[in-house]
Structure formats: C-alpha cells, structure tokens
Amino acid sequence: MTRGKRPAVATARTRAVEALRGVLENARNAAPLVGELARDLPPADQDLLRELVLGVLRWKSALDAEIAATCRIPMQKLIPGLREIMEVALYQVRHLDRIPQYAAVNAAVDQARAAGGEGAAKLVNGVLRNILLLPTPAPPPESHPLPTSGGEGRGEGVVAAQLARHYSHPTFLVERWLARFGSDTTRRVLAADNAPSRLDLLTNPRRTTRDGLRSALASEGVETELSPLAPLALTVLKGNPLRSPLLAAGHFSVQDVGAQLLPLLMPAGDLLVDLAAAPGGKSLSAVAHARARWTAAVDRSRRRLGRVTENVRRLGIPEVRAIAGDFGALPLADGRCARILLDAPCSGTGTLRKNPEIRYRVTAEAIDRLAGAQTGALSAAVRLLAPGGYLLYSTCSLEEEENERVVARVLAGESDLEPAPIDASPALAPFVDGARFRLFPDDRCDGFTAHLLRRRPAPTADGLAP
Predict the structure, then answer these.
(1) Which of 4, 70, 113, 401 has its CA 20 to 30 A from that of 330?
(2) Which stretch of DSSP H or E encloses residue 115?
(3) How far apart are CA 221 and CA 204, in angstroms?
C-alpha cells in the first residue's frame, strides 16, 4: 500500500466504526448514515465504507462469536468502539479477498491504539492474529447436530439457534421460517440475506430502451444484466450508475425489482391509486409499464412526497400526481377507485440483505403490532374500492402475520370482497398461488408478498351480478 492511499482507507475503516455505532446504539438506518459519512471520501472509499458497514451488519453475530471465543475480556466490557474495530477487521479477513489480511489487522491495531492506548492495541492484535490461525466457520450441517432426547423439537431448536448465529438473524425468525418454509428454503433465504446486495434500475421508456440504457451505461464502465423478472429492469453487476449523467437526465431511476413488479400483478386500468406511495417508484413503474394511464401517489409525508414530485419532473412522467393523505382520512371518495395498490409499511423481513439493521430490531411483538396497523390500513383502502375494482395488498415481509392473516381478517369483514386470481406473465407465474404472489430473497431481488383482492360488481337491475 502506498503512503498516499493509506489515510483514505483508514478513514473508510474509521468511519465504518462510527457508522456501526450509530446504527446499533442510536438506531440510525444504515444506508442514509453511510451516505452522510461518505460524502467527502473518494469514490473507491465510499464503496469500501458501504461494504464494510453492511457486511458487518450481515455477519455480526458470527463475527462476534469468533471474537468472543478468543478475547480475554468479555465483549460487554470492551471500551467503546473496540468491538466494532475488531468486527470491521474480521469481516475483511473472512469476506473480502481483495484486502490483504495484514492490512486489515494493522489498520485495526492503529485504530485501537488511537481509541484506547497501547493496551487496546495489544488486545486487538492478539485477538485478530489468533483468529487468523483458525479456519473460517462453516454453516451448520443439514442434519441435526445433537440428538433430540431433550424432547420433541429439541434438534430443530438447536439447528435454528446455530443458523441464527451463523447468519446473524433473530432466532425466533429462523424458527418460524423453518416451521413454515422448511429447511431448504430457509437456508436459501438466510444465504441470500447475507450476500452482497445489488442495485436495480428501472428504465424510463420515455427516454430510452432497456437495451439502449444498458449499452450507454456500459460505455461509462457500468456493467448490468437484464432482469428475468421485470421487463424494464437492469441489475448492476459492476460500477456505480449513481455517478452517471444519465440519472440526472431521467433515463432511469433506482428501484428494486420487486417494487417494479407490483403493478404487473393487477389488471391494467385507467387510474391507479397508489397508497403509501413515496418515493413514487411503484406509480412510475405502473405508468412506464402501461398498467395505468394516471396514478395518484398518496402518502402522509409531505417531505417524502417531495421526492415523488422530484422524480416525476426528472423522468418526465407527469401522469403521476402526488397527493398528501393519511389512511385515517384519505382525500378520496369511498367506493370510487377501480385500481388500488397498497404497499403497506411492514417489518421488512424480505429486505434483510439491503437493510441488515432490521435483524437487530425486529421482534415478534413488533410484527404483531404492525399487523394491527396493516389491518387498519387495508380496511381503509378497501373502503375506497369500487364495485368490480381490484386492490393489490403487498409488503416486503415474509411473515404470514403481516400478509395472509391481515388479508383473512379484512376478508372476513367484507362480504363483497374476494381473492382474485393473479394473471401473471410466464416469468412470474411460478411465484403465483391463486391470489397470492410471493418471492423469497435470492440473487434476483429481495423478498415480498402480495395478495390481489376484488370487490364483486354491483348487482344489475334484475338482481343478478353482471
């Protein structure tokens, strides 16, 4: 490493420690905090900072288990910042091939010395160099590692705890997933949650084509691939499109593939009412994919609605109209909306790769509280639905408490509301089960769940449904 580059890398590592403490001690969200701390860093160090923070959050429990097994001082008694210094260094050792191990360790020792003097430096040096002598921990085996003599389910509980520690997920969540989705699916989800996240782009057909955008970005050094799920989506493989002038020119917006898909799961219509809409990606996707001629993007946050207006202006899609309103007092007439999309605020358990801090905050009790709010939001949305109209209810959660049970409660109170089979494209059909669409996290996108509902048409004059 040259003398000119050493301070920049050290700054990225130092700020990674600052970011981790902000996330874990002050409940800051990782992505915006990293953005704040990266503003004055060179581009390569901005990328390193993001990788270090999100990577440590994805693997924190496993990193801490290795450190605790080697450190002579209990983790809770370490001076502030020392745990994070070792986590950042160990993440580089275990997961980043491009950074030499000695460089990661030396930087951590220097940081520890600055934070706590020579004693802290010696402690960090000893812990990390002892860990370097050990093999990288492997995932728990497929079979139960312990007998189940402690009672029925003992083996499953042991596996859940081991998986939770290795992949840094809440144990209660892993237990639920094993019971509901099975071992194979759960392990795939856990592995996907801990893989590096990729950026998805929504092509603006008013400015270019998907192939044209891909070629233009490639000429700037940004490598992408076509999404097999969404017809206007590109997934970034290399480079940073946020530095491209094409973004400011409105050729694309940044939007997860899952969010791009939502308007494709319901019949096309004239006007789509998009509830909890900010920053407007789903409304923009609906117009871009010709699933709606107009959209009303409703959100209670005027600040977030400002982002809708900004995106509409940048992309040149005036058919998206921003409207301020809350679920308790929506500025729309009951029973008049033929197409409604409600992407409800949720626990986000399908997005633990891009938002890894969620795994340290989500609880079973919080999910139950959210489910109550979601039931109220869906009930309010249903009141707007016209006879014969369609409502798509979605969350970026994998939990049945926030999805199937919410829908069941609302259906039980609405005699003229029914599940509507989703007519999906061949690419999406494998993820459809009647009126439900579910994607588990994988290398293509985050996980989410959606249900399509329909209000039965009003009877005709002779008393028969049309």
Answers:
(1) 401
(2) helix 101-132
(3) 20
Helix (H, G, I), strand (E, B) or coil at 271: strand
Cis peptide, bond prior to residue 279, ω within 30 of zero: yes
Peptide bond into 426 cis (omega under 30): no
Of 145, 94, 105, the C-alpha closest to 127 is 105
Determine the topology of domain 257-455 in CATH: Rossmann fold (3.40.50)
> Measured between alpha carbons, how far is 332 from 295 in angstroms, rounded to an integer?
13
Is residue 385 within a helix (H) or strand (E), and if so which, with residue range? Answer: strand 385-395
Task: Choose among 205, 225, 206: nearest CA to 215.
Answer: 225
Q: What values do phi and psi take at 200, rounded to 5? A: -110, 145
Domain boundaries, the chain: 6-132, 154-193, 200-254, 257-455
What does each of the 466 residues of the chain score in pLDDT, given as a tens digit? Answer: 333 344 444 589 999 999 999 999 999 999 999 999 999 999 999 999 999 999 999 999 999 999 999 999 999 999 999 999 999 999 999 999 888 999 999 999 999 999 999 999 999 999 999 999 999 998 888 754 433 334 444 556 889 999 999 999 999 999 999 999 999 999 999 999 999 999 999 999 999 999 999 999 999 999 999 999 999 999 999 999 999 999 999 999 999 999 999 999 999 999 999 999 988 999 999 999 999 999 999 998 889 899 999 999 999 999 999 999 886 677 788 999 999 999 999 999 999 999 999 999 999 999 999 999 999 999 999 999 999 999 999 999 999 999 999 999 999 999 999 999 999 999 999 999 999 999 999 988 899 999 999 999 977 655 555 6
CATH level 3 topology of 200-254: Alpha-Beta Plaits (3.30.70)
Q: How far apart (Å, rounded) are the C-alpha atoms in residues 343 and 414? A: 20
Amino acid letter, 367:
I
The CATH architecture of the domain made up of 6-132 is Orthogonal Bundle (1.10)
User: ∠ at Cα 192 (187, 193), nearest 5°?
Assistant: 100
SS3 of residue 421 by DSSP: coil
Nearest-5° Cα angle at 331, 329 to 333: 100
Give 329's DSSP letter. Answer: B
- Give the span between the Cα atoms of 390 and 376, in whole angstroms: 18
pTM: 0.91
